[in-house]
Specification:
Elements lengths: L1 H23 E14 L4 E11 L18 E7 L4 E8 L2 H5 L4 H4 L2 E12 L3 E8 L6 E9 L7 E2 L7 E5 L8 E8 L6 H15 L12 E6 L39 H8 L6 E6 L6 E4 L3 E5 L5 H14 L62 E4 L2 E7 L16 H15 L1
Parallel strand pairs: 2-8, 10-11, 10-12, 12-14
Antiparallel strand pairs: 1-2, 1-5, 3-4, 3-6, 6-7, 9-11, 13-14, 15-16
This protein binds zinc ion.
């Protein structure tokens, strides 16, 4: 009886939310392309283009982002009554670049985009950045958009076939991953299809993705590059590729990313999607994953299965790195005076809001490393590139080293929560 009541309420809420979607949005996407520029201490936004894409791949019920992860956030308000109708947190390359030495010396600009369902009525869009001194979101930029504006451009239809790798659920009830190739020539697209199938196999080899695989769709856009491989600037290798991915991003050899965000969005927008995963045609170890931005990994590296789930952990679930060894030590990346937004890191400032409910009553906080505790959920010092003052939920986890085979209990819970957010 109780169960019936629960499902009735759940059903009713879904119907109300869907009605909300149909009232405010149509079945298409509004993409805002903008420039995000500045230095280590300054930033500004400038509008580039408004694009109408033909699909909406996201949820039609979870429109407002209640998790509020990410260093950046945007909100969409219905202009007539100032009701919040959509929001989403994300991260980007600009924010990471701001922590580099170069950002102290020079101003730089980055292409970025946000997407949300295409509005039926005029909206106000507000862009926020997280304040490093207090952890709150500060309003940085806002624009008013009339969906009838005749300068909103239709998206380019590109002449690339789509390959269905896995799943065929309605996109609003699934996590839709679009795989984009970089550095595969026309004659190498067969290899890209095989690499895309390996991607799906790798992802579903790990829990909790394995148990939830019926909530995923994976599709690949068969876009070819003029030349094979990706850029390695330190070796003067610069192939002409469709997404211009490059190792040595921010002069870090293993960090392989693309600055050509418009090209990425143009390719991804050929189908409905929630998450963008770029496979690079290279044997060289490297990649990266940025929350609600995109992930990249090398298709051919022997440890690529673990890299794939690690990077996807960042980009999909907002998981932070749990490592902190000296080679990656980076004091100051996090402000230890408040909680980081990542669900798997804590400063213990407000641990009740983190994974305390998963820690056994007898487990000490912080948790010492003993033969017994290394198999338990606890609060282990060291994480987020910081050896002191930052804590992680498990001795080891796929967000820590690639020696382990599993996500810790806290990371798994965060991934499952996000799967529900996209697919319920
Ligand atoms: Zn973890």
């Amino acid at each position: 009886m109780k169960k019936t009541l629960f499902f009735s309420i759940f059903w009713l809420l879904s119907v109300v939310s869907l009605a909300q979607y149909d009232h405010f949005f149509e079945a298409a996407t509004l993409r805002i392309d903008y420039i995000h520029a500045g230095t280590d201490k300054t930033e500004f936004y400038a509008l580039e283009n408004l694009i109408k894409e033909p699909y909406w791949g996201g949820s039609k019920t979870n429109l407002v982002d209640t998790l509020r992860y990410g260093d950046y956030f945007f909100e969409v308000y219905d202009n007539a009554n100032q009701q919040l109708i959509y929001s989403r947190g994300y991260c980007n390359l600009f924010g990471e670049w701001q922590t580099t030495e170069e950002a102290k010396r020079v101003q730089r600009s980055f292409d970025e985009s946000i997407v949300f369902p295409f509005p039926k009525h005029p909206v106000d869009v507000r862009f926020y950045s997280r304040n490093h001194d207090n952890g709150n979101f500060d309003l940085k930029f806002q624009i008013a958009i009339d969906p009838k504006d005749y300068f909103i451009k239709p998206a380019k239809k590109l002449p690339f076939a789509i390959f269905n790798v896995y799943g065929d659920k309605p996109s609003e009830q699934a996590v839709d991953i679009v795989i984009l190739p970089d550095g595969y020539t026309n004659t190498e697209l067969g290899k890209f299809i095989i690499d895309s199938q390996s991607f799906a196999k790798s992802l579903f080899a790990y829990e909790p993705f394995k148990s939830y695989q019926d909530r995923f769709n994976i599709r690949a856009v068969l876009a070819y590059s003029d030349e094979s491989g990706v850029a390695i600037p330190a070796d003067s290798i610069w192939p002409q590729t469709v997404l211009s991915s490059s190792f040595y991003t921010f002069d870090s050899e293993r960090y392989c990313m693309s600055y050509d965000h418009t090209a990425i969005r143009n390719l991804a927008g050929q189908i409905p999607y929630d998450q963008i995963y770029i496979l690079t045609n290279t044997e060289k170890y490297g990649g990266g994953g940025i929350y609600n931005f995109y992930s990249v990994s090398a298709a051919e590296n022997s440890s690529s299965a673990k890299i794939i789930v690690h990077e996807f952990g960042h980009a999909f679930a907002g998981l932070g790195d749990e490592y902190f060894d000296s080679s990656t030590a980076y004091d100051g990346f996090y402000n230890l005076a408040f909680e980081p937004w990542e669900p798997n890191l804590t400063t213990l400032v407000d641990f009740d809001k983190k994974w305390k409910h998963l820690v056994g009553k007898k487990t000490p906080i912080p948790t010492p490393v003993t033969e017994k505790t290394i198999h338990q959920t606890g609060v282990f010092e060291g994480g987020g590139y910081c050896a002191k003052g930052m804590y992680r939920p498990a001795f080891d986890c796929l967000m820590h080293t690639f020696k382990g085979e599993v996500f810790c209990e806290t990371c798994s819970a965060a991934i499952i929560q996000m799967i529900h957010f996209y697919s319920d």
